[in-house]
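Supplementary notes for students who missed Thursday's class. We covered one full example, reproduced here. Read the sequence, then the structure, then the short commentary at the end.
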Amino acid sequence: MMISHFPVTFIIIVLTVLISLRAFKDNDLKYKMIFYPYKVNHEKELYRIGTHILIHADTMHLIFNMFVLFSFGRSLEFIFRDYFGPGMGSVHFFVLYALGGIAASIWPFLRNKNNPNYMSLGASGAVSAVLFASILWMPEGGIYLLFIPFEIPAWLFGILYLAFEFYMSRRGSSGVAHDAHFGGAIFGILYVLFINFKKAPEFINYIIG
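Structure (token representation):
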């Protein structure tokens, strides 16, 4: 019953886990799928813009991304299915996730298209798109973070997260793709505004009200 309500969320998680586990043991596969802007630009390996979403650096990287996707993806897919109907709701969720991962690669690509030393991987950008689409749609929600013993309002977390990721992406040299996180989050916001623009005034009214 649960899978029937959230088919796309579970399909994405299962597929990502299986491919990531395989790539942990197969460095050639990981290299072929990794996001490598230099090769995208100079050798036209455009597929890398999407395939890197399915692989991860290590087990904790995979677990964290899939946990966040599981936590927020189920709720958002349910909302989309309720709002648009079961078929189109799941389609919208898949488009949000897939294009969110691709959109998250735009800034890293522009910054590193001539850098042969830059590579990145993981579903963090796509997951950020889902997370921020959820925050804009449901600002009244709350988020718990490790080591913080109280709930943070979703809208406040969103603002702080964007500010932090933007600052860290400008700072650089952290070893984390903060620019991808920021890009995915922005795409998630824009996608919600595209499919239901009234969520913008509702979000603002909730904060100031």
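Commentary. The first strand starts at residue 142 and ends at 143. Residues 82 and 103 are 26 Å apart (CA to CA). If anything here is unclear, bring it to office hours.
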